[in-house]
Amino acid sequence: MSQPLIIALSKGRLLKETLPILAAAGIEPGEDLGSRKLIFDTNQPDVKFIILRAVDVPTFVTRGVAHIGVSGLDQIAEQSLNDLYLPLDLGVSRCRLMTAGLADQAPPSGRRRVATKYTHLAREYYARMGIQVELIKLYGAMELAPLVGLADEIVDIVDTGNTLKANGLAPRELIMHSSARLVVNKAAWKTRHESLAPLVKQIEGALA
Ligand code: PRP
After folding, report:
1. Which of 30, 63, 87, 99 fits as disulfide partner to 172, beta carbons 3.0 to 4.6 Å?
2. Does the pTM of the predicted model rise above 0.90?
3. Which sign, positive or negative, has the C-alpha torsion 142, 143, 149, 153?
């Protein structure tokens, strides 16, 4: 048998929103995804899921160990990886990458301390705006940084805005819109076209 087709998915909300789309395209988990396993059978013998942290999906697909995957555009843009083909916007996990700060405070006029895990996109954004920044890399709980005086501003994902509000913060500037994208390894798109092209078509059909 030829090597199975590997689909990289990410844990959490994105997984929940992606599974119904894949199911409508005919691919469903063949076992309980809640287990501690990382590679999962599907209802198709030649298709497997691997379940990763969202940040790692573009890496696995770029390096070709997964042939196709689902990743937020924010992650793809942050990592600015090549060798990825983005054929479809799945229209789920929509959010905005924004700057935010204390609701009752304007950002300082001089150099800003900015906490974010999106250091690449933040650096690009502030450079474009001509604003000098000191970037502070954090991996979570970004909203805490302005509250405890670690940063003047954060760059983070905003969906409902509830997390900002609950912490006395307010959104400031929009950096980019994001949503879940289908990502395909460019080499695999050529070498496994006979299995990937129909799959992308089925997913596109499922979206319609
Ligand atoms: C994201 C983001 C915010 C929150 C925004 O965190 O970092 O904290 O969602 O959503 P809201 O505008 O609807 O409140 P997530 O829960 O994805 O976890 P993370 O910190 O691991 O990224």
Report:
1. 99
2. yes
3. positive
Residue nearest to atom 8 of ligand 1 (CA): 163
Residue extents of the structural domains in the chain: 5-93+179-207, 95-177
- Tens-digit pLDDT profile for residues 39-62: 999 999 999 999 999 999 999 999
The stretches in the chain having pLDDT less than 70 are: 1
Q: Ligand 1 pocket, 159 CB below 6 A?
A: yes
Domain 95-177 -> CATH class = alpha beta
- From the alpha carbon of 13, which atom of ligand 1 is closest? 17
Distance in angstroms (rounded) separating the CA atoms of residues 27 and 24: 7
Of all helices (H) and strands (E), which one includes residue 47?
strand 47-52
Query: How far does residue 118's CA lie from ligand 1's centre (Å)?
Result: 13
